[in-house]
Design brief:
Blueprint (H helix, E strand, L loop, with lengths): L1 H8 L5 H22 L9 H13 L18 H19 L30 H12 L5 E3 L8 E3 L7 H14 L3 H5 L6 E2 L2 E6 L5 E5 L2 H13 L1
Helix pairs in contact: 2-4, 6-8
């Protein structure tokens, strides 16, 4: 009941974020019922929270799949920290209720997160950029057809609905801003201001101003003029 109440009245975030919150809280709920034989929230304390986190940290993959080998840790440090954060927010909310259901206060107080390895930047090589650029510029060009009645390849005219300038502008924006695909898909003409994008909606419903590369700005301007 408390989890449903929390998710429907208090929890915020994008659809994917809410889905992860629901999954993480349901995982804790299942473990709690298994460990204590009931879902009595008054039994939730710091010791049971710590036991849950340590149980997850020791859990291993039983059957290989999804890029993991049998015997490897089931959860990465980042996944564990996400679950801790979601559980911590839920615990803070539930402990703030009047009257508080748990006598001991916030049951996630003092539960530490795991150390996460520093992420290495994933950069495109010059060769990869050249290949991407070539493919992007050919999006609206001619297409090769394979006619079953002929033995040689023939060339067809571009499709009637081809939008080469638009497609190139999308590619240039992705490369020239580092924005996510979802953020680019939501852009409106009114957000363009020279070399800047105004009020860009990013992950977590946050808005910010984004600097655009000169090539991306030129590609967008060309698209707006021609298509």
């Amino acid at each position: 009941w408390w989890i449903v109440e929390y998710l429907t009245t208090y929890a915020t975030g994008a659809p994917n974020t809410l889905r992860y919150k629901k999954e993480d809280l349901e995982l804790f709920y299942s473990w709690f019922v298994w460990a204590f034989g009931s879902d009595d929230v008054t039994k939730w304390n710091r010791a049971s929270s710590n036991l849950f986190v340590q149980t997850l940290a020791k859990e291993t993959v039983k059957v290989a799949g999804r890029g993991k080998r049998a015997g490897e840790p089931r959860w990465s440090a980042r996944s564990l920290n996400r679950k801790i954060d979601h559980l911590r927010t839920f615990a803070k909310w539930i402990a703030s209720q009047v009257p508080a259901p748990m006598a001991g206060g916030n049951p996630m107080q003092g539960i530490k997160r795991f150390d996460v390895p520093v992420l290495q930047a994933k950069r495109l090589t010059d060769k990869e950029l050249i290949r991407l650029e070539t493919a992007a510029r050919g999006l609206g060009g001619t297409r090769i057809r394979r006619d079953k009645k002929r033995t040689e390849l023939g060339v067809m005219e571009p499709r009637a609905d081809a939008r080469p300038a638009r497609d190139l502008a999308i590619y240039k924006l992705l490369i020239g801003t580092g924005l996510r695909v979802a953020a680019v898909a939501k852009l409106d003409v009114g957000q363009f201001s020279g070399r800047r994008l105004l009020r860009v909606k990013e992950k977590g419903s946050q808005e910010r101003e984004v600097v655009v590369s000169s090539e991306a700005a030129e590609a967008v301007a060309h698209y707006l003029r021609t298509e």
